[in-house]
Amino acid sequence: MLMEQILSRGNLITALKRVEKNKGSHGVDGMSSQDLRFQVSSEWTAMKVALLEGTYEPQPVRRVEIPKPDGGVRLLGIPNVTDRFIQQAISQILSPIYDVTFSEHSYGFRPNRSAHIKGLPFFCCTMAIVLFRQSMLDNSKFVMSMLLRPVRIAKSTMA
């Protein structure tokens, strides 16, 4: 049922428009967001089959180093625009489902919220990202079970 919603025409058109509007940088394939509409229209049948069969594989991300004010660098991975289009289509369906399960004090990567605040919510979000990445690397069921537990944050701990 979720795949039907994700691959619905209306959802895909909205995802396409959002990726085009964002005008993000190209991925390893060098394709710009301006070329996405033509690419999707010419290759959609094969893409849809791969998505439905579970054989679709995202392309590697383009690695970019962003200088930090302190002299270090922040590594950034830029997916190609086709993968961003698919990610956007998935996010549009899954975000409303999962967003209601998040704590009111959870701010990271959520619409109309900012993780740039002092205190525990930012720390919790950062730790969740670290734990998630680690669980993907070592396929840890324990870490994933910890991430899926509801987190309760007392208001008195807010800075």
Main attributes of the structure:
2 domains, mainly alpha, 159 residues, 2 strands, 6 helices, two-stranded antiparallel sheet, globular
Shape estimate: globular
> How far apart lie the N and C ends?
42 Å
Order of strands side by side in the largest beta sheet?
1-2
Helix content: 40-55%
Order of helices and strands: HHHEEHHH
Largest sheet: 2 strands, antiparallel
What's the structural domain tally?
2
- Rounded radius of gyration (Å): 18 Å
Given as residue ranges, the uncertain stretches (5+ residues, pLDDT < 50) are 118-122, 151-159
Could you tell me the number of beta strands?
2
Structural class: mainly alpha
Q: Could you tell me the mean pLDDT?
A: 76
Residue share in β-strands = 5-15%
Q: How many helices in DSSP terms? A: 6
